């Protein structure tokens, strides 16, 4: 049975502690790339090529093997924490879920870990936050809790798919600063997927530009944004008001 090829010869690498921005318009292949890396594509999707983390090939691994890698080696932050987080479970429980999967923690240890994570991601009043349900906190607090869940087991790679789209500008700035702090302190690499030039400029060292499932431009952020070569990059900058600083 035939199908539609979505990605075409997508290739990039990421050093330890490096922050890469993936930018492009809607439907350009950004999110599909992240899902392919994390092994979260639908079962019917056919993936060819190679995805390696610390030299280990991820393509072809079983669901059980991928579950062992997610959280432990790869963490993922989704666009809308209100849907990524279960409305029926307390935030502290969700923040420490990967620890419960990968390590045997007692109830007290898990609660202590939740409080530590809440503090690490800058959540004020952590005692209240870890006991709260997602609907009882603000959007920015939910996203910080989702980030805490993603970094709980100290992964080497953090995938963030449009992590600030649903947030106002002030909260967005704080979340992006948090990503910088995490990667600086933990030597965790970051792939930040966005359509927003300003987000890439604030958080990334390098950027790759997607269009129609392919990478059309790549390089250091300041070089690509100051001297864009491809019409897609030029259009994205123009749509953002021409600001790259």
Task: Summarize the structure in words.
With 245 residues, the chain is α/β, with parallel strands linked by helices. It has a single domain (19-239), classed as Rossmann fold (3-Layer(aba) Sandwich). The chain has helices at 30-38, 63-69, 81-84, 91-95, 97-102, 107-120, 126-131, 139-151, 169-186, 197-203, 221-226, 231-239; strands spanning 19-24, 52-53, 56-57, 74-77, 157-161, 189-194, 206-211, 214-220. Strand 2 and strand 3 form a beta hairpin. Helix 6 crosses helix 8 (139-151).
List keywords for this structure.
245 residues, alpha/beta, two-stranded antiparallel sheet, 12 helices, 42% helix
Percentage of β-strand residues: 15-25%
CATH architecture field: 3-Layer(aba) Sandwich
Overall shape: it is globular
Total of helices:
12
Distance between the termini: 48 Å
CATH topology: Rossmann fold
Estimated structural class: alpha/beta
The spatial strand order of the largest sheet comes to: 4-5-6-1-7-8
Computed over alpha carbons, the radius of gyration is 18 Å
- SSE string: EHEEHEHHHHHHEHEHEEHH
Q: State the helical fraction.
A: 40-55%
How many structural domains can be distinguished in the coordinates? 1
Low-confidence spans: none
Question: CATH superfamily membership, which one?
Answer: P-loop containing nucleotide triphosphate hydrolases
Biggest sheet record: 6 strands, mixed
Briefly, what CATH class? Answer: Alpha Beta
Strand tally is: 8
Overall pLDDT confidence: 90
